[in-house]
Amino acid sequence: MNFIKEKKIHKAIVIVITFLALGYSSFYSVRSMFAAYAAEGVFNSNDVVSFLLSAISAGAIYELITMLLFKANARKIGQLRARDMQYALRFFVIPVGILSGALKTLYFFFPYLFNYGEVFIEFLLLFISFGFYIAFCCKNYCVKEEYATIATVLGSAVLLLYGVLAVLSLLSGVLL
Amino acid sequence: MKRFLVFFTCLLFVVLTTGCNKSADTAKKEAFFAADNEVITAENVNTELDTFVLGDTTGEHRDRTSFTVAEHSSAKYIEERLKSFGYENAAIQSVEEEAISVNGTAIIYTTYNVVARYNEGKEREVLIGASYDNMFSGLTELGVPATKSEGIADNATGASALLCLAKAFCDENPTLDYTVTFVFYGASKIDNIGSRKFADSYASVKNILLCVNFSVLTGEKLYIFADDVKTNHEKLFLANANRFATKFSTLPATTPVLPPTSVTVDLGYSHYGLVGDHAAFFVKDVPCINIFGGDYESFNYYTPIYDTYESYRSESSNNGTAAADAANLLYSTLTATDFSAVATTFTNKKSYSFFTGDAVIYIVQIGIIILSAIALIIVVKRLEKKYPRVPRRMPKVKIAVFGMDYENKGDSDIYVDLKPVDPFENDEATDPFENSSQTDSNNEESKRDDVDNNSKNQ
């Protein structure tokens, strides 16, 4: 994992791969939306357009959220270290996107899995991957005395984000 | 030789019995489906469609916009047509729906379902439906734009096929132990209001053996959708469909899953097979068959067909064969000898209701987040205990006014030692001026010595 700590891969390349991986993961929901627009006669498109737009939108949202999170916590963890951690996070998000997208091919055979799949597949994979990410950051960017602080900062950020999203989804999708 | 004969006899026996079984299966299938089942021809469907759309004594019905007088006129035409076939019980059912206009005012809209029954009065029932409306003129109060589409493919073909089917039942008069209900749904273009209200009118749907929907019966290929799991009724229809010129198949697995419609909101999703007037019965767990056409295998996603009578007729594949084959498929299956017995197995399928239902998903997700937060707190506490954080304080600058002897040298602060020089430290008193004159004379001597040395060297 030295190549992450030593930033051997150029940042732009990593960002592009992140966009593609997240696009693959969110492809099915974007495809669903665009197919519905086409069926209503609003806007015609196909899977290629769906994939490109899902990559751009998912990637942009990811970069924006992580930029804000790391900037907000830069004082606690240090600005330089925050930048390094932001770079490293992408390497843990890329496999999540790829695995999630691959698992979602189950929708082709079991369309009724769509609801559960969209909520749980990416969510559970990201939680597992984020656990490894916290361990990686502690080992590579911190002294032992800072493990607790780093785990708190990173863990609480992602839990808060997903907690807010889940509550909003429950309110908008079900209760309202 | 003996062994060879025995071996050959056994082999022959195996081949013959296998062959017989296969042909027995085919014979069984053919015996299951009524022998003479081509009761509706493409010409029948075309004639019915031409009269419906281009008009008769009641006028033409190119415009069948939902909730309008034009739709009512089309409903009256269908009712009279059914009565002319012999369905005295054919009737228009008015259905009212409140909608909010673009101005924010509530308006009551009326649509019309047309219902006729063959073999009325039986306990069990098979429903066959097709919508007949379009959005030709649009509904400005609801913000629905006019499409100027005469809705020939979608769904004058389905309505015409259903009329031909109703006529066939009357003419052929098959003996059945269930009622066949023909329903022509109104306002299908507005959230399938006609079919939703019709489904809601049933106090109990448990006696409905099957609900069939005809939609967009055009082209060389039609699709059959029953459910997202394997079902007996889908197998039955697909097995019977092999004999027709039109290709019948299931939807490709790669068709996209769509967001739920207002009818399938409890399912949480939809797709092309679930879009239709049968959906209102599907969500009530009635076994359904949707027979529909459209292009679901092209590079682009499916878009609705906007057509006029003339544009529809100009395409050679729209010659009524698909509609006739769909109607014949249904007639032959429903009038099959053991259909009633087989129909009791239509509800045997794998249940996936666990995966449908929204609130549970988000509650479980929130539960996992809470558990993860608890796990994080436990991990952080353990890390704090194992690797306690040594508080680092910034060193202070202190001035040791009385010297370092009076300060705590063990801490990490920075000390500036300002201990003064003791003027009384030296025992001998010193004349400050004495020192300075002595110093001057010493300097002069050293200078003289330097000059002497320099001259000597020269």
General description of the model:
The complex is a heterodimer of chains A (about 180) and B (about 450). Chain A is built from seven helices and no strands. Chain A has helices spanning about 1-5, 10-40, 45-70, 75, 80-105, 115-140, 145-175. In chain A, helix 3 runs antiparallel to helix 5 and helix 6 (about 115-140) runs antiparallel to helix 7 (about 145-175). Chain A starts with a helix and ends with a helix. Chain B is α/β, with parallel strands linked by helices and about 450 residues long. An eight-stranded mixed β-sheet of chain B has the order 1-2-4-3-5-8-6-7, sandwiched between helices. Chain B has a two-stranded parallel sheet with strand order 9-10. In chain B, helix 6 (about 230-240) links the parallel strand 6 (about 220-225) and strand 7 (about 245-250). In chain B, helix 2 (about 40-55) packs across helix 4 and helix 6 (about 230-240) packs across helix 9. The chains are: A mainly alpha (about 180), B alpha/beta (about 450). Chains A and B meet through helix 2, helix 6 and helix 7 of A and helix 11 of B.
**C-alpha Rg of chain B (nearest Å):** 46 Å
Give the oligomeric state of the chains in this entry, treating copies of one chain as homo and distinct chains as hetero. heterodimer
**What is the ordering of alpha helices and beta strands of chain A?**
HHHHHHH
What percent of the residues of chain B sit in helical stretches (DSSP H or I)? 40-55%
Going by helix content, strand content and strand pairing, the class of chain B is alpha/beta
Query: Which class of secondary structure composition applies to the elements of chain A?
Result: mainly alpha
